Automatic annotation (TrEMBL):
UniProt cross-references to Pfam families, sorted A to Z: DegV
Protein name: Fatty acid-binding protein DegV
This protein's UniProt keywords: Lipid-binding
Tagged with keyword Cytoplasm: no
Protein source organism: Paenibacillus riograndensis
PANTHER family noted in UniProt: DEGV DOMAIN-CONTAINING PROTEIN DR_1986-RELATED, FATTY ACID-BINDING PROTEIN TM_1468
């Protein structure tokens, strides 16, 4: 299929290199500081500016999914170019992107827009989006493409490390925000989450940052698909870079991409975080209905 365009939203971990090379399009989420300061991520405000705002003011922003109208306008512009849409969202358990995209899809002919729930958080969704973009040229139909993605989704592992140290005042968040994206802690069944101290020396990091993570046992069991892993960091550039290096050196991943993202800001405990995702060779979870 050559006429399918893959989309996600800007909460997804995706390096610029892959977005450009694979033609992946990204719809911005909304970042809200206070009741009147509403920004489109990466259009009105960049990720590093959001980090700086949190550090300087000690206040966490609210983050909201794109609206139904946002999705409608985006999908319409693509369909008018004689292309079909595949939108892959972060888990519907924490983000309204899936629901809003599904509602927008109802305005178009059957088959023009396909919406898929990754069941994952930021880096896991990114890996699913990359898998989709790579698989589009090889798939003979949308049905065949979705079968590939369903199989990959079953074998996706995602791990998230959250800093123990609280840096921001959660009371500053905008709790009444429509379409609010909520904490990844709700996904504990789907992703492995650990709380660790990020205030460590480089030597201590080797012991603590990846200790007790699932990647150890998956590697020991020979289950890792080592072609690619995506690493995300929120306000933890050094720890993200360290994790990237260790995943390549210790576990043999061929391609390791590191990106800054907003994921850690959703934890509502401490914004600094590192996450990473990879595929394994065996079925990890039964498919959902």
């Amino acid at each position: 299929m050559k006429n399918v365009r893959v989309f996600t939203d800007s909460m997804t971990t995706l390096p610029e290199e892959l977005k450009k090379r694979l033609g992946i399009r990204v719809i911005p989420v909304y970042v809200v500081f206070g009741n009147n300061n509403i920004y489109k991520h990466n259009e009105d405000i960049k990720t590093e500016d959001i980090y700086r705002h949190v550090l300087e003011r000690g206040v966490m922003p609210g983050i909201a999914a794109p609206s139904v109208n946002d999705f409608y306008d985006l999908f319409k512009s693509v369909i008018e170019q004689q292309e079909k849409v595949l939108f892959i969202s972060m888990s519907a358990e924490i983000s309204k992107s899936y629901k809003n995209a599904m509602q927008a899809a109802l305005f178009f002919s059957n088959g023009d827009v396909t919406v898929m729930d990754s069941y994952a958080f930021s880096s896991g969704t990114g890996l699913m989006v990359v898998k989709a973009a790579v698989s589009v040229p090889k798939a003979g139909s949308m049905k065949a493409l979705l079968q590939v993605l369903n199989n990959s989704r079953k074998n996706l592992n995602e791990e998230l490390i959250l800093d123990k140290i609280k840096l921001a005042n959660t009371a500053g968040e905008v709790y009444g925000l429509n379409n609010r994206i909520i904490s990844p802690l709700k996904l504990k069944r789907q992703i492995q989450i650990r709380f660790k101290s990020f205030n460590l020396s480089q030597t201590d990091q080797d012991i603590c940052i990846l200790k007790d993570m699932q990647v150890h046992s998956s590697s020991a069991a020979g289950e890792l698909q080592r072609e690619m892993t995506l690493v995300s960091q929120t306000m933890a550039a050094d720890h993200g870079e360290y994790t990237k290096i260790k995943l390549k050196e210790r576990y043999g991943f061929k391609q390791v991409y590191l990106s800054s993202c907003l994921a850690g800001l959703l934890s509502r405990r401490a914004p600094r975080s590192v996450g990473f995702s990879y595929f394994v060779n065996q079925k990890k979870l039964p498919e959902r209905a």
